[in-house]
Amino acid sequence: MSIASLVRRMAEAGAPPEAIALAVEAIEAEQAKEAARKAKRAEQKRRERDTVATVARQSRDTPPSDKEKSPTPPKEITTPHSPPKGGSYTPRDALAAILDTERAQAVVDHRQRIRKPLTAHAAKLLAGRFAKVPDPNAAADAMIANGWQGFEPEWLEDRTTPQRRATAPPKPPERTVSDVLGEMKAGTWKPPETRDERDFPAIPSFDRRN
Prior knowledge:
rod-shaped, mainly alpha, disordered C terminus
């Protein structure tokens, strides 16, 4: 019921003005209390929402502590491939003792491709030849690239050493007139047989008795 309706009914009932005023004040006081309670509840809810938002923002901005962080997986440590103990010893295992894993498998695949599959023993011998060069992996690459069935260190050296150019043998020195005269005096001079006489210097006449 509104205050206006209450006042009208009390006046119709013949209530004195003082009683009406007291009733109005009591109603207004009760309404003020109810409004204060509602405002307090609303303020409390607003503070709760602000607190939740602040906590969420701090959680998002603050990095997690060491205890909250997920453990970092250990780094994988690669070790040279070693033959399996108590198991089958494959051609790839033999090659991997000298080559890296990728090239060891590439050599096995290459021999399969040319229809000359490796046995474990043959692979061990081939690995020994690879080990004789400074870079075994480069030797394996050369074997595959050139289609070789096997490998010898000399093959790689022959391909890296520049070829020597073939040179013609040096021409004999040209003979002079003095050389011919000396041979005639010594009795070792022979007349030309297959060459044109024009290729030889003219010999002056002289008396053999002198």
